[in-house]
Every structure is written in C-alpha cells, then in structure tokens.
Amino acid sequence: MKNAVSQKGMTLIEVLVSFAILAGILLSVLTLVGQNAQYMLSAEERLLASIATDNLVTEELARLESPRAGEEVGAAVVAGRQFAYTRTVVEVGERAVLIEYRVQREGGEQTLARATALKARQ
Predict the structure, then answer these.
(1) Are 67 and 89 in contact (CB under 8 A)?
(2) Is 1 exposed, middle or buried (CB count within 10 Å of its CB: 0-12, 13-18, 19+)?
(3) Do the beta carbons of residue 84 and residue 75 sit within 8 Å?
(4) Which CATH class is domain 10-120?
(5) Distance CA 39, CA 45 (A)
C-alpha cells in the first residue's frame, strides 16, 4: 500500500475553491469594464453637448442683431446626435444683453452643458 502522504495533486475541494475565487475575480473585472463603458458614453454625451453649446453661443455672437429678451427652445445636432436647447436672454442695462444657453438630451430634463455670454446691443 502506498502512503497517503506521498500522493501528489489537488483534492476536489481545493479545485472547487480555486474556481470560486477565479469566478469572483472575473465577475469583478466584468463589472468594472461595464461601468467604464457606461462612463465613457456619458462623457461622450457631455462633450458633444458642450460642443453644441459652444457652437450656439458663437453663432449668436456672430449675428449682427441683438436677440430679444425672453426664453426660446430649439434643437441642435452635433455628430449625428440630437440635443434640445433653451436660450434665455436678459437685458443688462441699455447697451447689453446676457445670453444663456442650456443644452440637454432630446426629451431629457438634465442640463448637460451650459454657457453664457454678454452681447452689446446694436
């Protein structure tokens, strides 16, 4: 008879424990990758909304006429993505207006990007 101490290899319990540890590690890595992908999509959307806001303010400042005081809603497209915007114009004295653009996801309420500018009256 062979001595039990001289046997080599792993027992079934040891293999099962190592598989359980490996499964836990893999599950953690997959969760981390999923969260990273979600964050990247959100960051891309905020970046595109910021570009849309910058474009809207630049176009507004390039126009010769000054906008009327009040609020206006509209839509903008950047890189094939549709965004909704709200433009608010407030008179600041006799010679200037304050223009604020807020951009959100189409159909959404959360503001993704915001920009303000002062424009002299013409």
Answers:
(1) yes
(2) exposed
(3) yes
(4) alpha beta
(5) 10
Query: Which among 86, 84, 83, 73 is positioned nearest to 48, based on CA atoms?
Result: 83
Tokens 């309420």 belong to 109
Nearest 5°: phi and psi at 113? -150, 150
How is residue 66 annotated by DSSP? Answer: P
pLDDT band for position 108 (50/70/90)? confident
Most distant CA pair in the chain, distance? 106
Residue 122 has pLDDT above 90, yes or no: no
| Residue 58: both structure tokens together | 């630049």
CB of 103 closer than 8 Å to CB of 81: no
> Per-residue confidence at 107, pLDDT binned at 50, 70, 90?
confident
User: What is the three-class DSSP state of 115?
Assistant: strand
In this structure, what are the phi and psi dihedrals at residue 67, rounded to the nearest 5 degrees?
A: -75, 155
CA 100 to mean position of chain CA atoms: 20
